[in-house]
Design a protein that fits this description.
The structure holds two protein chains of two kinds.
Chain A (H helix, E strand, L loop, with lengths): L1 E7 L2 E10 L4 H9 L8 E12 L1 H16 L3 E5 L3 H9 L7 E2 L3 H8 L2
Parallel strand pairs in A: 2-3, 3-4, 4-5
Antiparallel strand pairs in A: 1-2
Helix pairs in contact in A: 1-2
Chain B lengths: L3 E5 L5 H12 L6 H22 L7 E9 L2 E8 L14 H7 L6 H8 L2 E7 L2 E9 L2
Helix pairs in contact in B: 1-2, 2-4
Classes of the chains: A alpha/beta, B alpha+beta.
Chain lengths: ~110, ~140
């Protein structure tokens, strides 16, 4: 799992590259637990190269979502592969989280 | 085709399990989504065995065997760790997990939703989880 980020104004874009399982999700959890992330108002997650997610990966997002919402931070997923989106759908998370198709859509939702 | 694999109880070996299942299933024409779901279900059970039943003790082992039974695939995952108490299992309330920021506890729910039948048995210290999926 490779995690990179890009910062522009009040938006941080996190790109996930690889497989998010019980072993690698610790890295993502560290990234989202870093107090400095709370200074952004938008967190965009680029899932283009995310080839796999298990419950451990979903659990990381589930465990941080409320904290972001309480601080009016928008968490938006985009470029998600169908098979990965399907895993969110199995638990109904697609209805509780914001998942859009493209970067442009993500920016539109972020700026609403 | 080799249909079983034995790995030590380290989370790093989950990738090996996933690759093994993917390789085995490559002989069938499954869609990307179904293939990923099956790999995921086996990964979830394996992760539970490694982390909870065997406390990531790399000196312990778990096994996976895959069989085709008529129109179904059977995944048999076994270990000698602490057995899973299915009777204590409760379906998670995802919205509650979000409210309280809970990280775990949704893996078995995923497996139940993907597989047609999920069985847990324990005998003489050996635990076997059987996952059945109709794909043909």
């Amino acid at each position: 799992m490779k995690i990179t980020h890009e910062i522009k104004d009040n938006t941080i874009t996190i790109s996930l590259d690889g497989e998010l399982d019980a072993s690698s999700s610790v890295l993502l959890d560290e990234e989202l637990s870093n107090p400095s992330i709370m200074k952004y108002s938008k967190i965009l997650v680029d899932c283009a190269k995310l080839n796999y997610i298990s419950s451990a990966g979903l659990g990381v997002f589930i465990s941080h979502l409320q904290r972001f919402e309480d601080s009016q931070i928008k968490l938006i997923f985009y470029n998600m592969q169908e098979k990965v989106k399907n895993v969110f759908e199995i638990l109904g998370l697609d209805l509780l989280m914001t998942i859009v198709s493209t970067y442009d859509e993500a920016m539109t939702v972020a700026n609403e | 085709m080799n249909n079983s694999i034995r790995i030590s109880c380290s989370k790093k070996n989950l990738k090996t399990i996933r690759e093994f299942v993917t390789q085995y299933l490559s002989q069938y024409e499954l869609s990307d989504i179904v293939l990923n779901q099956i790999v995921l279900a086996v990964d979830e059970i394996s992760a539970n065995l490694i982390i909870h039943a065997n406390q990531e003790d790399a000196s312990k082992f778990m096994e996976l065997a895959i069989e085709r039974l008529n129109g179904q695939l059977l995944f048999e995952i076994s270990d000698n760790g602490i057995s899973f108490q299915h009777s204590n299992y409760k379906e998670p309330d995802i919205e509650e997990h979000i409210r309280i920021g809970k990280k775990g506890g949704v893996g078995i729910a995923i497996v139940n939703r993907i597989m047609d039948k999920v069985e847990f048995t324990s005998r003489n210290g050996r635990n076997i989880c059987r996952l059945y999926k109709t794909v043909f």
